[in-house]
Amino acid sequence: MDHEPSAYRLEGDNSMYRLPSGIVAPVVTRGGLEDAGAADSGGAVRVAGVSSVHTPATKLWYGKVRNEPGYRSVTHHHGEAETGGYVLSGRARIYFGDRFEDYVDMEEGDWVFVPPFMPHVECNLSRTQPLTWMTTRTPDNIVVNLADVADADLRDWLDR
Question: What does pTM read for this prediction?
């Protein structure tokens, strides 16, 4: 029997994503089976749902980050990676600028973009509730920790 070519034929070549079975298909990471070995910035608990560690992804890292009440990261940046975030629950602050004198605050439902190579400090504004966000980076979960800044040097942090 002759088969006509599919009307849904791909324009590009995705054969590099071929699974051991020989097919190209979506890859599901089941809850509880995420990669917990993701790089961290001083105590942020990051788990990867999509990464090069356990999927065929080569240009994307996508995970969930949990920060305990009162948490603040060490000063860091994400190298060449563009970073996007979405606050699932809690209230967040990101310090940035030459001396980390500027900040943006976020709450549940807010999205954020952090440019490559931008030093920053991520914070959970609550002293009693955890902060949970979804984060994606391209090409990977790059975390470069830097010399830290003192709590007292972060405007409005101690008296939040």
Answer: 0.83
